[in-house]
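From: lab user (bench 3)
To: helpdesk
Subject: output format question, protein + TNX

Hello, I'm new to running complex predictions and I'm not sure whether the block I got back is the full result or only part of it. Here's what I submitted:
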Amino acid sequence: MLNLIPYPRSIVQQGGSLVISSSPAIVADAELEAVTPWVAILFNALPPSEPGGVKIQLQLDAALSISEEYHLKIEPKRILITSASSTGAFRGLATLRQLIWQFRGQGPTLKLPLMTIEDRPRFEWRGLMMDVSRHFFTADEVCRFLDVMALYKFNKFHWHLTDDQGWRFPVTRYPGLTEVGGVRRETLVGHERSRPRQYDGSLYSYCYTVSDIKRVVAHAASLQIEVIPEIDMPGHMQAAIAAYPHLGNFNWPLEVRTHWGISTHILNPLPATIEFMKEVLGEAADLFPGRYIHLGGDEAIKQQWSESKLAQDRMAQLGLASEDRMQSWFISEMAEFLGRSGKRMLGWDEITEGGTPDDAIVVGWRGTTHACAAAMKGHDVVMAPTSHTYFDNYQTEPATQPLAIGGLLTLQKVYEFEPRPPELLPEKHHHVLGGQGQLWSEYIPTFEHLTYMAFPRACALSETLWCDKTVKNYSDFLPRIRDHQDLLLSYVSRIGPIPEISIISPQLNEPDKLSKSIS
Ligand code: TNX
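Helpdesk reply: Thanks, we reran it on our side. This is the complete output you should expect:
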């Protein structure tokens, strides 16, 4: 059995093998040269190339229709990867990376079985989201995370850069966003629901520099991963309002939030605030070369809009019938601005309340119902339901695990995730671009902990998002993922053992009950 994750669409083994005892000579079509540095890295444990030795060839084949499609052939004297783009070639290399790892011998010689693989993804959006507000992860850590993502053929990194508990994104025009908004006086210890609340008493102060961001974006690009920054608005903005109180509704003195849960502080809808946020987004649009910017839009408590005379006057002036409509107007203003900068917006599924901007991509997190309704109306959607993709939930028996937010999301449940729910009419299936896993970091204080929560569940997700439904099979996946532990460990340190699924007691298989009991 070949130990590949996500498992390719088609593998034909021929019998016999290719023996590699020195670095293969690299022959690449000019269009694919961007990926050749990675080819060299794959074989850097081997002695230098020898004349007449094995060669590895990257060949362009424009007839392959999908940019991520690739064919990989292991022949007696040659490895051939064909693709229509460097993205496809790179996905083929990820497969080769796993094969090299599986067939590593004792000495430097590699012996790969002869085979032909033909492979392409089921979904074009295969993402992971990292929250760096609640807890911060350095640019180096993000790059290491991207390396593992690339190994499992993820192609979207959704970077949740701002929230109530910390603003991490550098904005030249408004340095206070990071200087004040990036500093939290102290941090909650224990669970949000424990009383009395206890704090650690130490300053938590982090932000990225422009060069950090550029480094991450460049590294992601070299791994054929697109970075999607999220600037969450109009709620989840307490850190920004703490830095610039005129963005809020009442000019109350405010600090960066020191515990979790949802803040009631929301941006005011006045023209100066709209302008401010457009300037912030303008800087994000300049720094991030990708096609998308995520505007958040989730969990915006609108009570302050109801209570503030200025907000109510603005609502009347704009002729908006409700606070929901005002949020939708707010988001549309931003979407239009982004459109002018050549970007397309995404938002959490609350952006469907009060009217969704036409071209917006809806990220469904409250189950799949809201996203399905949006898809029925013709919007593109990405599925990110709490039930199957929230990696901040426990992965096994909570008593055996570090503190988490609650819930239970086992490896198997992630594996069973189906981004196209049965209620979605087949003619709307193309609107489901794919799905993504979420790493909300309230209860994830370190990078080691982050990778522990992310893997192996993200590997299960990778198979769900890449493989054709007919290829997916959990009992076949289990032995493969057990073996992959070594490979994962070579990328990120101290990933805990894969939690033994069998120890879960029967009542824990009812996540609804569980979240209540540990809430
Ligand atoms: C909901 S999902 C949030 C986040 C929290 C997360 C915790 C979403 C769009 N908002 O602010 O971190 O739950 O699981």
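A quick orientation on your result: The mean pLDDT is 93. Let us know if anything else is unclear.
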